Description:
This protein has about 290 residues and is mainly alpha-helical. Helices cover about 70% and strands about 0% of the residues.
Amino acid sequence: MAELAIPRPTWKRVLENRRVQWGGGFLFLLLLVAVFAPLLAPRDPIEQDLMLQYLPPLWAEKGEAGYLFGTDSLGRDIFSRLIYGSRIALFVAICAALAACLLGTTLGLLAGYLGGWVDAVISRLVEIWMAFPAVLLSIVLVAVMGTGLHSVVIAIAVIDWTRFCRVIRAETMAQSTQDYVASALTIGLSWRRILIREILPNVMPLLIVLLTLEMGIAIIVEAILSYVGLSLSSELPTWGGMIADGRKYVNQVPWLMVLPIVMVIASVLALNALGDGLKNTIDPVMRK
């Protein structure tokens, strides 16, 4: 007699997924680097030494011990600046993605479940908002509010809430036709309790994927704003600012621009891999 297969716990399926292992492992390492930046960075990221301009990486010819990735045009240690830049990138990614998620999910749930004039108003607002180019609008918002991390976070959240709203609205409309919602209505649950206790848990797998993707987008947008000088002060270490500095000398010292670009790309790919892996293991539809 054949034995019945015992389903594995969700957390085991998550940990066994290769995408989750790669993406989550890289991001966990990046988070540790950001948290312990003062201990890991060999030098002050804004300390200048004009006698050590354009030092090549340690493994290249004329590389100097103590400067793993060399120095920039002001003699600042690139390795230390990359480490401290991860702090800014992760801070913006987490805060902006959570803010956009909270606003967009709330409006999406309301529009998808209540329908009627509520859905019409929110849908028109989303359409109007999405008519503006996202990056251009973020630059305008930061220019109006002033530079700084808080302005960058607010700008990204204000722009990208529509991404969450549209997807969650559609999913909420689909979930509203399920039997469990009809049962909740039969026993007299209010629409608020149905949204929070019934529908929201069922859209959570999709929400997790959207959140990880949004974090990657936030890293890119912050890098763009830093590149054009609208994030933090130019002397503070941001990956976008480092790319802008390296662009001026890309033919002579290409590592100045290549290294922060690699960090941005690796972070975004890791977030995408983590999101895909979580969706494939958490979402019951994807597991079939």
